[in-house]
Amino acid sequence: MERHVTKLLGEPAPDFSAETTKGYINFHDWLDGDWCILFSHPKDFTPVCTTELGAIAQSRDEFDRLGVKIIGLSVDSIDQHERWLNDILQTQGARPTYPIIADTELKVAKLYGMLPWYECNTSRDRTAADNATVRTVFVIGPDKTIRLTMSYPMSTGRNISEVLRVIRSMQMTETCQVATPADWQPGDDVIILPTLSDTAARQLFPNGWTAPKPYLRLVPPPT
User: Is 49 a catalytic residue?
Assistant: First the structure.
């Protein structure tokens, strides 16, 4: 029996074509070299997911400033998505303007390893509990590889501030030879990569660094 095919960091994000609330898309074409978050939901009209889609909508300006495209996924139809968007506006004060995939045949959920391939090929008569594993945030880089996955239980709403924090970290560390420590926030000190020798580090960080240990070299964040 086939099992979930977990998508690993650094692997190519699988391509697909699908109907969304903003029309039919080919995913890789839609990405067009930008950062992206793909976040999935097990069912429309579920309470925790309603708050999450509203929170993402309220944070849209922050994602735009970071150059990050947003796309949601739920296993129900476009018609149901549209009715759900009205509920989100009424209860959360913001209507999502980003596309939401109608994954009625569970194709994308299976393609991204959120459901096993032996599940049925329709969302009809399936409950949110049947789709409980369709609760993952994927961050996809400009090279169309998976940079982050975060899976949440249905009982726990996702932390949108954390998604933004991680994206800010990844975008900075993409071009600067640094990493970010635990609980890092923008403006905090960062860590010089251990692969960078002290000699090479002095070229990039001429003002020096603090080093509680030789392998832990801390500097202000690059500007």
Answer: yes
